[in-house]
Amino acid sequence: MKPGTCYPENYALSANIHQIIVGLRKMDLYSIVDGPFLWIVLLAFLAGFLMRISFFLCAIGVSSRSKENRQFHILTTLARFFLPFHKAFAKKPFYAALRYIFHVCLFIVPIWLSGHIVLWSESRFEWDWIALPDAWADGMTLSILALATYFLLRRIIAKNIRQDSSIRDIILIIVAALPFLTGYFLAHGTLEFIPILGENMVTLHMLSGEAMILTALFLFYTTRLSIQKCTGCASCVQNCPTETLECNDKGGVRLFDYAHFQCICCGSCVGVCPEGAAELRHEISAKRLFQVFSKREIRSVELEACERCGAYFAPEPQMEKIGLTFASECIKCCPECRKTKMGDRLHQLSPWHRQKTPAKHPGLLTRKASDGHT
Ligand code: SF4
Ligand code: SF4
Question: In testing the pocket of ligand 1, which one of 224, 231, 272 has its CB within 8 Å of the most ligand atoms?
């Protein structure tokens, strides 16, 4: 084939592509957001949702602890997709209650909003269902916005929370709140006096809604162990019902591993942690979607070596904390050496031991007796 020549079918393909590009140029942003992009987002969400459920069922299937409770774990975890009820409620009841209200509103408003139901009934599906009264929808939308503002300020202002937060945590709150903010402006015509915003509010509302749906696809509710607070005691590991959390002592370090698809978000680790170091937090990650069985390291803690035999026997932060309460030289020893040391001490204090001592050192007995010692 000579350079510059082209097969007829290639001409046809080029012409088709050209037509699509010309068509896209003619379309405004709204028709893209309301047409092909909306379908791509909805189909991606549906496929991703089914994929996540399949991965979760596989991961729960390989967890070896609590086999008889697997079905219960599966059902409760699916319910937690929408309402994050778990055993850690008692640790922060006020904050947990606010989170539940936020999630309930986040779920109810988009589905039962009259404006959305009208769009479904006018679509090719002609689906229709009972809508929320508009006043309720408004109240719930304002609750979402108020709570999102509170969560955002809490992350930015409170120093201890800021230390454990990342920029992704802040972006997540903004992404969750934006569709409700633009929806409220749209319903009430709040910003219509600003032409550029008023004219494009529908597009902004749809774009922000689609961004939220896509984000939900890559959103995980995962366990975190705070570096500042965790002492490495491993109570969380012992109480994890699905072996999602594991720890191993290797060469003077205790490593904590975590498998996110295996986690049923039960909150047991949060509930039992004596330091308030375990937390269940949202995390956005595209690569985690494809890491089905792999475990990742979420915490490592140095181990204390016994001062007698050199064996590693307990996490350093935990021993430091115990040392604040008990001032005994025995706590620097491993359990075996501690027994030996205590045995030696008791032996020295025993009357038989003391009776023998004067026979060897008669001068010492005389001096102690004269000093008034018994
Ligand atoms: S229970 Fe708390 S302090 Fe102990 S290892 Fe787990 S997170 Fe750390
Ligand atoms: S890691 Fe925590 S929340 Fe996840 S299953 Fe184990 S105990 Fe439950």
Answer: 231
Going by the DSSP 8-state scheme, the letter that residue 264 receives in this structure is -
Q: Are 226 and 211 in contact (CB under 8 A)?
A: no
191 within some domain: yes
Number of domains composing the chain: 1
- By the 10 Å C-beta count (0-12 exposed, 13-18 middle, 19+ buried), 239 is classed as middle
Which residues, at least 6 apart from 63, have a Cβ–Cβ distance to it below 8 Å? 70, 242, 243, 244, 262
Q: What is the pTM for the complete model shown?
A: 0.73
Is 353 among the domain residues? no
Domain of 109, in residue numbers: 29-301
User: Is residue 234 included in any domain, yes or no?
Assistant: yes
Q: Hey, which of 85, 220, 265 would you mutate to test ligand 2's pocket, going by the most ligand atoms within 8 Å of its Cβ?
A: 265
pLDDT tens-digit series, residues 207-265: 999 999 999 888 888 899 988 899 999 999 999 988 889 999 998 999 999 998 888 88
Is 181 a domain residue?
yes
Which two tokens mark 326? 């008990």
For the stretch 173-201, pLDDT in tens is: 999 999 999 999 998 988 888 888 888 88
